Amino acid sequence: MKKGKAEGRNTAQEMVRSKIKPYQLRLYIAGNESNSKKAVSILEEISQKYLGSNCELKIIDVFRDYQAALKDGVLVAPTLVWVRKGTPAFLIGNFDRQKLLDFLGLTETAGGEK
Amino acid sequence: MKARKFSMKNKRKLLEKALTHISGLDIILDGGLPKDRASLVVGAPGSGKTNLALEFLYRGAMNGEPGIFLGFEESATSLRQNAWSFGWDLEALEKGNKLFILEGRINPETIVSGKFSLKPLLSIISHKAQEMKAKRLVIDALDVLLQLLEEPFAVRSELHYLNHWLSQQGLTTVLTLKPRDGQFRLQDFFYSMADCVIQLDARVLNQVSTRRLRVVKYRGSDFGRNEYPFVISSSGIKTIPITSIELQHKPFSGRFSTGIERLDRLLDGGIYRASCTLIAGEPGTGKTLLTTTIMQEACRRGEKAVYVSFEESDQAIINNVRSAGINLEPYVKSGRLHFITAMPEATGAEEHLLNLMEAVEKVNPQHVVIDAISACARMGGTQAAYEYLMRALNLLKEKGITILLINQTSGSREQLELSGIGISSMIDTVIFLSYVHGEGETNRTIQVLKSRGSAHSNQIRECLITDDGIEIMDAYVGEAGVLTGTARKIQEAQDRLAQLRQEALVRSKELELARMKAVREAEMKKLQAEIENLNAELNTLKMEQQISLEERTKRRSVREYDKNRMKQPTLRPKTKKK
Q1: Long-range CB contact pairs, A63-71, < 8 A, 24+
Q2: Higher pLDDT, A32 or B1
Q3: Terminus of chain A with fewer CB atoms < 10 Å: N or C?
Q4: Is A95 on the interface with B (CB under 8 A)?
Q5: Considering CB atoms only, which of B108, B111, B124 is closest to A103?
């Protein structure tokens, strides 16, 4: 897992530099339960702040579209799926900022905020 | 089918149930699992939880109740392969929309952070269930997922939600769970959630693996409370409950001949049908021969028998008894005599029991022989043997089948291991075969030690093994105990001699008496003669006395005459002088 994270960081930064839209993100939520709402707000904030136009974010409510969840093999919420080069990576649980940044291979310093 | 019979007995239907269609399980569950509710199957890895759950779905799907399998441990591919080994074609069911496998395995690349909810998977299941009109659901190894939720509180709230969700789905659900140690016991939650809890257990006893199943709880329903052995056979899970909670042994009905007239007489007319007879004895005393004699006679009458041999192959038995005039071959060929030969240690006790009961179903015999109960201990210890025999005897007795058990004893008569495995209460008749040593030879004896419900001779008889089978001799019961063989013959001769001696003695006494009587008579005659002699002498003397008296009187009178004549001249002067 650690190895995966390290690789993720490198490729992500490369991608940011090369200006390809590297962040194909899908966030699965379960209606308006608190964990999901929290996840949405953190993700939106981070993606705006760090990813900007590099990010394509879809928020999917499993109660509305269970087939998408089935297709992605998502069984719990919130789950963030990041599809890179065809393979998905998963972050499950009510992640905080730091966990999300780690997952996306970003660091706080990269965005300038100390 | 059995289950239907069972539930009909309960006139008051407390709870709707869904048949598992798993052999024997519906009887233990008194009609199946609680319909539309959650049941829990708990067991260590390898105890057969997933198999049980999968079979519940498979058999349900085959009987018109589609189902969903959600597994957190095994991949769909490995499930399909496992199922295939039981001859279940899951893919066909999946294509027919009767079964849906949802893989819940967590990708190892997944990063877990804090709390999450199970809502997506529940949403998938309820949509899928509606789509395929599913009636059954299995959630296999949910603990694997819940383990990722580190906080007990989060687990609790998820389980509450799951419980609530399940109660609204109309799905008969089986959850499986591995028992885990630890501060937080997931188990307790699952236990309280489920209406029915089944515990599975696989253990190895004396190198033989045995599986057990126990219903721990069943809300609102009766259930078999014992530990039931089960096997994962080539066609799925099988369990043989001691059919029911109550004993329903058939009563004895009539007797049948053993084929040995004198033994029939010892048994007061033969062996009772539906009874259990133990034939015990040391090696070589003729146990197998006696048993096969009885079986041959049964087959001759047109009856059928199943012979379970744990010690010899069927061919060896047939060959061995042929020399004693027992020919089983035609009955084996015609199917009246069915042999099951197996090494006791080859499988666990349950499998042996299943093999026996399957043969019984197939052959439908009047008699079952188990040769020998002493070998059953090799199935995995005395406990396993006890369970095997107890269950077998119960099931056979319920079917009204006559049972012959063979037991090899090794000790002397003082330590009779008649039923060392603790089944003596199930045994109605005991025939004990033994050796008697003495006079440079060894002889066989037979004795009926116990015979429920009938008078029987408890004499020890000698039995001979001849070319014509077993022959039972008269009992010789003398002061010296039971005698056999040459010793019996010698004793008989000695007895005859003693008898003659006694007769002679009597005769001589009689003669002596007669002689004495004769002597007495002779003496009496002699005395009489003496008396008569004396009498005669006495008479003679008396006569002589008489005669002499008369003569004296005569003489005196003569003398007096003379005196008177001479008196006057001579006598006077003398007187004057005076």
Answers
A1: A63/A30, A63/A31, A63/B119, A63/B123, A66/B120, A66/B123, A66/B124, A66/B127, A66/B128, A67/B127, A68/A26, A68/A28, A69/A28, A69/B120, A69/B123, A69/B124, A70/B102, A70/B124, A70/B128
A2: A32
A3: C
A4: yes
A5: B111
